[in-house]
């Protein structure tokens, strides 16, 4: 087996556990529970176990294969499929997910049939379109949908949800969440329902949460980014008392030379069809790291030492090493954005390593 040590992503489980604990206590103060979203770590069972041990009993992921991975690793939790299902995967949804988020009648009808065939009742949460323009049922159409769902015996409606700041960048405002809260009570009283989940959003809901005095009926948020990276989504601000460095990306120097800072020759296009431009800094300490666009989201990385990323191609990253003294074989650490974390965890070229400190 090839044992490459770089590039790698270092995962500090103790820091993730700390973040999960702090967020659970914080949201609980206003009666809000947490679904731990595992998609950014591709359903990594080690991270999922940390969520569950911290007291998060509902795990949510956008991929059935990730849910299956966690179940195969015996991580005990209620599993929620976050991404609305395709018709083709209906059978796997009822087989592996306990709950799924849905918005289309044809899919829900097929879920009901599939669950009945397996002598099950599949739980669903309806996504409500609150303006962000991604998935969801318009509030004006919700009554008709709920009435139809109540006629199905293979599914059970256990809640409603909204999603913000994902596609349209729409903020989860107090007004929007009040509408969701009222909609929930209206549905509950009209159809004699008692929802388990009235899920107000994701890591972008933090500012709303800190300002709101009474969140009304909202009793759940679905958190990935804030547990893993310690930030809220809207302004990428650190949430007090959380670690922002639970993940570190590490790459290795494969060339270190003093070279001119400007390319030499007639300029055409780079490997990605762009026409590059560079600042003239004279001769510089130019270092190449053995990592590129195929491995990681380069613009989601920030070096933890005083060097500057000049750019990258498929397999190489070029940096201005300044006065760091970097030499071939040295390792360079980076912090990751959500996008870089997603890419690192998804990439087969990036080694995953669990660390304690
Ligand atoms: C990814 C996702 C989340 C979690 O978002 P974070 O910003 O990581 O907290 C919540 N809900 C849905 C529907 C998602 O797709």
From TrEMBL:
Its cofactor is pyridoxal 5'-phosphate. It holds the Pfam family Ala_racemase_N. Keywords: Isomerase, Pyridoxal phosphate. GO terms for cellular component: cytosol. It comes from the Bacteria. Gene3D superfamilies: Alanine racemase. One of its GO terms (molecular function) is pyridoxal phosphate binding. Residues 11-227 form the Alanine racemase N-terminal domain. PANTHER family: ALANINE RACEMASE, LYSINE RACEMASE. This is Alanine/ornithine racemase family PLP-dependent enzyme. It comes from Salibacterium salarium.
